[in-house]
Amino acid sequence: MLFNSWTFVVFLPLVLALYWGLARFGLHRWVLLAASVVFYGFWDVRFLGLLALSVVVDWWVARSLEEVDQAHGPGQARRTPRRRQLLIFSVSVNLGVLALFKYLDFFSESLTQLLGLVGLAANPWTLDLVLPMGISFYTFQSMAYTIDVFRGQIKARRNVWDVALYVSFFPQLVAGPIERAGRLMPQLTRNPSWSTVRVGPALLLVLWGFYKKLVVADNLSGLVAATLDQPQPNGWQLTVGVAAFAVQIYCDFSGYTDIARGVARLFGISLIENFKLPYFARSPSDFWRRWHVSLSTWLRDYLYIPLGGNRGGRFFVARNLMITMLLGGLWHGAGFNFVLWGAFHGAILIVYRVVFGASGEPRVTGWLSKLTAVSVMQLLTLVGWAIFRAQEPHQLGAFALALTQWPTELSAMPVSVIRDTAFLSLGVVLVMLFKHRYGLELWDRVGRITGLAVAVVLIGCIVAFGATGGQEFIYFQF
After folding, report:
1. Residue 4, SS3?
2. Cα 233 from Cα 303, distance rounded (Å)
3. How many CB atoms lie within 10 A of CB 64?
4. Cβ(282)–Cβ(362) under 8 Å?
5. How far is 461 from 379, CA to CA, in rounded Å?
6. Contact predicate 89/202, CB 8 Å
7. What does the pLDDT look like over 162-171, one tens digit per residue?
8. Which of 47, 203, 377, 450 shows the smallest number of beta carbons within 10 Å?
9. For residues 252 and 257, what is the distance between their CA atoms, to the nearest angstrom?
10. Could you report how far apart the first and last alpha carbons of the chain are, in Å?
11. How distant is the alpha carbon of residue 126 from its chain centre?
């Protein structure tokens, strides 16, 4: 089910009414679980089995880990091979399902191409499976639960339904943010109180999300395709297209997160902030503290640090960074562009560490040095988005060739296109700054009247300029 569909417009009020109506009887969790099953199954009911598999496996593994701890004692249990075997089983099942549906065809075709380069003919063995909605997100969230139990950071849940609700909570099921069990589970299982719900800020957050998705991202999608998907764009088209894509992907992805966080707040549940003005970053590490924060921290805590993190010499740190970013790029999709995108970000992280020291942060004091640092990072980010957007290897070559072709006349790039891109981009910057300054505290800081005025303006923009047709979110099938 898509957020930007009339089905969801009907679905959400019904779920809210049932949730709060039955909360006094302690049935709210069952309402949320049933709603999550309907929400996910509405797209394709067959994939509910995969979701259930992750839930059951990680619930059982977590319970088994706790039983081992109780049988041997915390100190001795950590030296018991059974604990590690259980964790390996959980990770293998989750990543195995993810690999089957998302990566099998890609690696098979890539191997066939490599064999062809050395003169060996082979036919790729592919399954052409449909990629389940949100599988990358809920797989990582489910694994995080098991790993945290393994590390002794949280207790295993006895009730499988608690784990099921944590993994399938519908507002953030499809595209995050990727939550941790220690933070989300207590909120889902406690008795909610309507008095703690702030409806105005929550609805305003939802409106911000719809504005970014419908007014900005969906309207820019046609421009991005028209400029970047032609056989050979020129330099102007490439520049405008990549800039438009940077705005589009930010508004599409962060728009989903805003809607998810706003909807969750209507149930009295707080989700983490996933985007923190990423295009104002001063360095690669600063960018990843601001962009897709839940994935960045997941990769840091469950991959980068276990690999060794910042420990060891420069070579080992560089190796850990590159492995983390390569796998982070591959997480985004089974394609050469995602691998190259991850490698590019790994490379600039390493370069910044070599140039600026272990922190990887340039020294900025005055406004000019800050502007320079942000501008350089913005340029690097745009290069990364060009790699990310290249759908075929030859398209990346066309992008590189475009940098040598700068026609003196902009006949192929109408002024209206540049104007619309600049207008939409300015709108995004204003919304980003306004939301960052006031956020959910808008009602407290500027009053309800101003908050309502902002809501009316957003609704007006959505009705007047919002794209129709219910375009899928970019991260819908990730």
Report:
1. coil
2. 38
3. 18
4. yes
5. 30
6. no
7. 999 999 999 9
8. 450
9. 9
10. 15
11. 27
Question: Torsion-angle region of residue 413: left (phi > 0), alpha (psi -120 to 50) or beta?
Answer: beta
Neighbours of 192 (CB within 10 A): 18
User: Catalytic residue positions?
Assistant: 332
Non-local CB neighbours of 224 within 8 Å, separated by 6+ positions: 241, 244, 245, 248, 389
pLDDT digits (tens, 9 = 90+) for 456-473: 888 888 888 877 776 777
Whether 436 and 277 have beta carbons less than 8 Å apart is answered as yes
Q: Which helix (H) or strand (E) holds 427?
A: helix 415-438
Question: What letter represents residue 466's amino acid?
Answer: G
Please give the single-letter amino acid code of residue 98: L
Is the separation of the CB atoms in 269 and 188 below 8 Å?
Answer: yes
Length of the chain: 478
Tokens 């796998």 map to which residue? 327
Cβ(442)–Cβ(204) under 8 Å? yes
Write out pLDDT tens, residues 282-335.
999 999 999 999 999 999 999 999 999 888 888 899 999 999 999 999 888 878
Spell 436-459 as b/e; 16+ CB within 10 A means b. Answer: eebebebbeeeeeeebeebbeebe
pTM of the model: 0.89
Q: State the Cα–Cα distance between residues 191 and 208, nearest whole angstrom.
A: 29
Residue with tokens 């501008």: 375
Residue 232 in this model has a pLDDT that exceeds 70: yes
Take residue 356 and report the two structure tokens written for it: 């600026």
CB-based contact 113:126 (threshold 8 Å): no
Closest CA to 149 of 163, 165, 134: 163
**Distance between CA atoms of residues 336 and 228, nearest Å:** 17
d(CA 45, CA 104): 23
